[in-house]
Design a protein that fits this description.
alpha+beta; Rossmann fold; 8-stranded parallel beta sheet; 30 strands
Length: 935
C-alpha cells in the first residue's frame, strides 16, 4: 500500500458508487445533491487519522537469556532446551526480544504476581504470554516418561465398517478405542495446562496458525525426538468449528452417522494437508505467494501431529493448550461429555498420579512447584459492563471446577489488553482503576497484578537525540508535483525512474542542499531528509506528552479537538490549499513507502498506522421541496434540503421527513410517523420522530418496512410526473398474509412547515403568500373496501396496526403488482419502496472487498479481519459477506457471457443455478435470451 491516502479515496469512491448503484434515484439533480451530502465529512466517512507507532526497546536474543530471566531454570541445558523450542517456530532466534517480553517471562515464572501486557499493536503481545507458557511446559517435560510406541495411524482411511470397529461403548470418554485415540500411546497424564480465551473465532484462527508454526513444524518434531522422548506438546481449538459435534456413543450404542461424519471430516483434513505439502514442493509457486513453505503449511491442520483436531480426542486426552471462546466454554461446562476435560485437569493439578509414597504435604508442595494452570485472556479490555460480568462469573465457575481459587498458588493469570494503564508505582500510591478492574474481574484478593506496558525507550532516545525540530516546514511543492505526475491509480504503483529523479532534484533545490548532497536517486534524497522528517513526525503526534493519532489533513468547515494539529499542517504549514495539502501528503507517503525497497533502512524509518472511519448509513431525510419540470424536460429535484440524520425540523425550518425510493424506477417518497388528525380540513400529519415515546429508549424506531399502516405514512411528491395507475390494489399484512384489496394512491397536499397532509385534487385555500408552503402529490391510503365512500382503515378498529405501511404498488411505475425473486430468496409480498439504509453486512462486504484489493498480493501476504462488538452482527456479517460475494460472481459471469453473446452458456447457467438468476416473473424469457446470439 504505497499511498494510504489514495487507498482511502478509492474506498470512498467505491462506497459512493455502490450507494448510487444500489439506491438509484430517478432525478439527476437529486442524485447529485445526495452525492455531495455523502462526500461531506462525518456523513459516510471521516478523513483519515494517522499515528507514529511506538518503537519498543529491545533486550536480548532468546539464546542469551540468563537464569535471572528464567527463574527456576538453574541448569544451562534447561535454558538451551527452552531456547531451542522457542526458536523452532515461535520467535526467530536472530531477533532480539523486547524488554516487555522478557519482563512478562520473568515475572510470570516467579509466580508472585499475575501479569497483564498492554503494549501496542504489533509489539509481540501474543509472544509475551506464550513465552512463559512454553517455559513452564519445557520445565515440566523434563520429567515425562518416553512414549511406548508410535502415534495412532490413519485409521480413518479405511472402509466405514472398519472405522466403526474403532468405536466401542465404555472404551473411553468418547468411545474411541486406544489405538484410534491420538494420544493413546502416551503414559504422561493428559490435562489442560493452559486455557487461552479469545473474544472471537477470527482471533482463534490466527492463534492456531502461530501454534502450528511453533509446536507442529518439522523443527519442533525434531525437538520432541531429542528432548521429550517422543512426547509432544499438544494444543487444540475447541469451538463450534471443531469436528465433530454430538456423541459417538449414545445410550450404549455406536452412532453410525456420527462416526461416518467424523471419518469424512478427518479425510477432508488429511486431503488438505497432503495437498498443501505437494504445493510447497514447487518452489516457484511458493515464491509467488510471498511466504515460506512452513508458513503456508501452518494455515492447514495436520492429522496426527501436535494439533488435536476432534472433540473426541480432546475429551479423552485434554490438550496441554486449550483454545476457545467464552461462548463455547460456557457450553462445555454444562455438557456431560465435556466433563472429562475438567475432571482430568483437576486430577492432574491435585497430583492424583503421583507416587502414593509421598505424604500429603510433599504431594502438595510438588504440585505447587511443578503443576501450574495458566489462564490466558486476550483482549481483556473487551470484557467490560454486563457482558464482562458474565465472563467474570464464567471464569469463577471454571476455576471452581478445577479445584482452584483466584489466589491459588497453582494459578497464573496472563492477559493482554490495549487500553489498561500501568499499575501504581508502589503500594503507597494507591490502587489504579485498572488494578481495581483486574481484581474485580478475576476475583483476586491476595495477589496483585503487574501491568507491563512496554518500554518505549528506543523511540524516546532517538527522539531526544534528534532534538527539537529545526524551524520551518518541509517544501510541499515537490511532493505535490510528484503525486500529480504519477499515473492516476490509487496507490501510484507505476513510479518510474524519471519520477524518482525529478522528486530528488526538486527536493534538493527546495531545501538548498549543496550539489554533493543531492544524491542521484529518490532513496538517497529521502534518506537525507529522514532525520528531519522523523523529528517533525514525533513532534506532530506528541499530544500531552504521549504519541497519539492525529488528523492526516485539514477538513473544510470542520474543527478538530484542541491540541490535535493535522499532520499535513505540521509538516507543510497552512499555506497550501486543502487540495494542495492532500496532494503533498500523498506524494510524501508514496516517497516514504519507496524507501522500504532498501532493506538496509528497515528499522530506521518511522512506522505509521492509519485509521479509516466509515459510517453505516441509517437512511436519508429531507425537507419537503418544490418539484416540477425543467425547461429541458428533465425531472427537477423533488425534495428540499437533505440531511443524513433524523430531526424534527431541517436547517430551513421545514419539517424533516424520511426519504424512501422505489428500487425499480427510482422515484422518491416522503415517509414519517403518522399522527391522526381530529380536524376535518386535514387527514393526518407526518413527523420524523416516533409518536410512541413511552417505548423509548428500550425499543428504538423500527425501519419503514417493519412499520404498520397505523403509525407510518407515505407521500409521493409528484414533481410534474404522472401516476401510472390509481387503481386499488391488495395491501398485505405485516405477517405476509393476504391483506385488504383496497390500497390506493389518492391526490393530496403536504404542508412543508408542519407535515400536515390534506386530501383532494384542488390546492388548499390559503393566502397567496402561503401557496408555496404546500407540495402537490399523492398519499397512500387503505380503505375498508374498494367502494368510493368506504372508511379509511385508520378509523376501523386495530386492523390498521397489522397492515404494512409501505404501499405494495409504486404509483410511478406500478412495480410490486407481481411478486419478485431476488438472489434466490423470495420477496413475495414485499414492496418495491424501501429506505436508504445500507445495512452493516453489505457495507462490510463493499469495504472488505475493495480494501483487500488495495493490499499488496505478495511480500508479507494479505490479511483482513472483519469483526463486530455484537456476536449476532458478526455472524450476520460473515454470512452476508459470503452470500454477497457469490451473488457478485454470478452477476459478473452473466454479464461476461452476455457480452460475449454466448447465450447458450447463459441458458446452461440458468438451468444449473436457477435461484440467483430468476426474473421478476419467476423465470427467464428463454426465447428472448436466446435471441441475443444467432447461435
Amino acid at each position: 500500500m504505497l499511498n494510504p491516502l489514495g487507498t482511502f479515496d478509492a474506498l470512498v469512491e467505491d462506497l459512493i458508487l455502490y450507494m448510487r448503484t444500489a439506491f438509484n434515484i430517478k432525478s439527476p439533480a437529486l442524485d447529485s445533491r445526495r452525492e455531495s451530502l455523502l462526500r461531506s465529512d462525518r456523513v459516510l466517512f471521516r478523513q483519515p487519522w494517522v499515528e507514529v507507532l511506538t518503537e519498543y526497546k529491545s533486550d536480548r536474543k532468546i539464546t542469551e537469556l540468563t537464569e535471572e530471566d528464567l527463574p527456576g531454570f538453574v541448569d544451562s541445558k534447561a535454558r538451551e532446551r527452552f531456547a531451542s523450542l522457542v526458536s523452532a517456530g515461535l520467535i526467530d532466534p536472530k531477533h532480539k526480544l523486547y524488554t516487555h517480553q522478557t519482563a512478562m517471562l520473568r515475572e510470570s515464572l516467579r509466580g508472585k504476581q499475575h501479569c497483564v501486557i498492554t503494549s501496542g499493536t504489533g509489539s509481540g503481545k501474543t509472544e509475551s504470554f506464550l513465552l512463559p507458557l512454553f517455559a513452564q511446559l519445557v520445565r515440566e517435560s523434563a520429567g515425562w516418561e518416553p512414549v511406548e510406541s508410535g502415534p495412532a495411524g490413519r485409521w480413518w482411511d479405511k472402509s466405514l465398517d472398519e472405522v466403526l470397529q474403532m468405536v466401542r461403548p465404555g472404551q473411553s470418554s468418547s468411545g474411541l478405542i486406544k489405538k484410534a485415540r491420538q494420544r493413546g500411546h502416551e503414559t504422561r497424564p493428559a490435562a489442560v495446562r493452559a486455557l487461552v480465551l479469545y473474544p472471537m473465532n477470527a482471533l482463534v484462527e490466527d492463534q492456531m496458525t502461530r501454534l502450528r508454526r511453533a509446536l507442529d513444524s518439522e523443527k519442533s518434531t525434531t525437538w520432541y525426538e531429542d528432548n521429550t522422548g517422543g512426547n509432544r506438546i499438544y494444543f487444540g481449538r475447541y469451538t463450534g468449528q471443531t469436528p465433530t459435534s454430538g456423541e459417538l456413543v449414545a445410550n450404549g450404542a455406536v452412532q453410525r452417522d456420527r462416526v461416518k461424519e467424523l471419518q469424512h471430516q478427518l479425510l477432508k483434513l488429511d486431503e488438505d494437508a497432503l495437498a498443501i505439502v505437494e504445493f510447497t514442493k514447487d518452489e516457484d509457486r511458493v515464491k509467488q505467494t510471498g511466504m515460506s513453505a512452513e508458513e503456508l503449511r501452518s494455515f492447514f491442520p495436520r492429522p496426527g501431529g501436535s494439533e488435536m483436531l476432534t472433540r473426541f480426542d480432546m475429551q479423552d486426552s485434554p490438550p496441554d493448550i486449550l483454545i476457545t471462546n467464552y461462548s463455547m466454554l460456557s457450553i462445555m461446562l454444562m455438557r456431560d461429555h465435556d466433563e472429562a476435560i475438567f475432571r482430568k485437569t483437576r486430577e492432574w493439578l491435585q497430583g492424583i498420579d503421583l507416587p502414593a509414597s509421598l505424604s500429603e504435604s510433599e504431594r502438595q508442595e510438588r504440585c505447587r512447584r511443578e503443576r501450574v494452570f495458566h489462564l490466558v485472556i486476550d483482549e481483556l479490555h473487551l470484557y467490560r459492563g454486563t457482558p464482562g460480568t458474565e465472563v467474570a462469573y464464567l471464569l469463577r465457575l471454571v476455576l471452581h471446577r478445577l479445584g482452584l481459587s483466584p489466589d491459588h498458588p497453582q494459578l497464573r493469570i496472563l492477559a493482554s489488553s490495549a487500553s489498561l494503564e500501568e499499575s501504581a508505582a508502589n503500594p503507597g500510591a494507591g490502587m489504579s482503576r485498572s488494578e481495581q478492574f483486574l481484581r474485580d474481574f478475576f476475583g483476586v484478593r491476595d495477589k496483585s497484578f503487574l501491568t507491563i506496558s512496554g518500554d518505549a525507550g528506543a523511540s524516546t532516545a532517538r527522539h531526544e537525540a534528534l532534538g527539537t525540530p529545526e524551524p520551518g516546514y518541509l517544501p510541499w511543492e515537490p511532493f505535490a508535483n510528484f503525486a500529480k505526475s504519477l499515473p492516476p491509480t490509487p496507490e501510484g504503483r507505476d513510479v518510474t525512474a524519471s519520477h524518482r529523479q525529478e522528486l530528488a532534484r526538486s527536493l534538493a533545490c527546495s531545501l538548498g542542499w549543496p550539489q554533493s548532497q543531492q544524491g542521484d536517486t529518490l532513496i538517497a534524497a529521502m534518506t537525507a531528509l529522514m532525520p528531519r522528517l522523523r523529528q517533525m513526525l514525533q513532534a506532530a503526534c506528541s499530544v500531552e506528552g504521549r504519541l497519539r493519532a492525529i488528523p492526516l489533513t485539514r477538513v473544510e468547515g470542520s474543527s478538530e479537538p484542541e491540541g490535535f494539529t493535522p499532520l499535513a499542517d505540521a509538516l507543510f504549514g497552512s499555506t497550501p490549499t486543502l487540495s494542495e495539502s492532500r496532494e503533498a501528503m500523498s506524494g510524501l507517503l508514496i516517497a516514504r513507502a519507496l524507501l522500504d525497497e532498501d532493506t538496509a533502512l528497515w528499522g530506521q524509518l518511522p512506522r505509521l498506522r492509519f485509521h479509516y472511519f466509515f459510517h453505516n448509513i441509517q437512511g436519508m431525510w429531507a425537507e419537503p421541496g418544490f418539484a416540477g419540470q425543467t425547461a429541458g424536460g428533465e425531472l427537477a429535484d423533488p425534495l428540499g434540503r437533505l440531511s443524513s440524520e433524523s430531526a424534527i425540523r431541517g436547517a430551513d425550518g421545514a419539517v424533516l421527513l424520511e426519504v424512501l425510493y422505489c428500487d425499480t424506477c427510482g422515484t422518491v417518497f416522503h415517509g414519517g410517523s403518522r399522527v391522526r388528525s381530529d380536524m376535518g380540513e386535514w387527514h393526518h400529519q407526518l413527523i420524523s420522530t416516533s409518536p410512541d415515546l413511552e417505548g423509548l429508549p428500550d425499543s428504538g424506531s423500527p425501519s419503514a418496512d417493519q412499520r404498520s399502516y397505523a403509525d407510518y405514512g407515505l407521500f409521493w411528491p409528484k414533481g410534474g410526473q404522472e401516476a401510472a395507475s390509481l387503481q386499488p390494489f391488495n395491501q398485505p399484512f405485516l405477517s405476509g398474509a393476504t391483506g385488504k384489496p383496497a390500497g390506493a394512491w389518492e391526490p393530496a397536499w403536504l404542508h412543508r412547515a408542519s407535515g400536515r397532509v390534506r386530501l383532494g385534487m384542488s390546492a388548499p385555500d390559503e393566502q397567496p403568500s402561503q401557496a408555496q408552503e404546500w407540495v402537490a402529490g399523492l398519499t397512500f391510503r387503505v380503505r375498508e373496501s374498494d367502494k368510493d365512500k368506504a372508511k379509511d382503515m385508520l378509523d376501523v378498529g386495530d386492523e390498521a396496526r397489522q397492515l404494512r405501511a409501505l404501499a405494495q404498488v409504486c404509483p410511478c411505475c406500478t412495480a410490486g403488482s407481481h411478486h419478485r425473486y431476488y438472489a434466490g430468496a423470495s420477496r413475495r409480498g414485499k414492496s418495491s419502496i424501501r429506505d436508504f439504509g445500507t445495512g452493516f453486512g453489505r457495507i462490510s462486504q463493499v469495504l472488505a472487498k475493495n480494501l483487500l484489493l488495495q493490499l499488496p498480493a505478495t511480500g508479507m501476504g494479505r490479511k483482513l479481519v472483519v469483526f463486530s462488538d455484537s456476536r449476532e452482527e458478526a455472524a450476520r456479517a460473515a454470512a452476508e459477506l459470503e452470500r454477497g460475494h457469490h451473488r457478485d460472481l454470478m452477476r459478473e459471469l452473466l454479464v461476461t457471457l452476455l457480452g460475449r453473446r454466448e447465450a447458450r452458456s447463459v441458458l446452461s447457467l440458468v438451468e444449473t443455478k436457477p435461484a440467483p438468476l430468476r426474473a421478476p416473473t419467476g423465470g427467464f424469457n428463454l426465447k428472448a435470451l436466446a435471441a441475443v446470439s444467432p447461435a
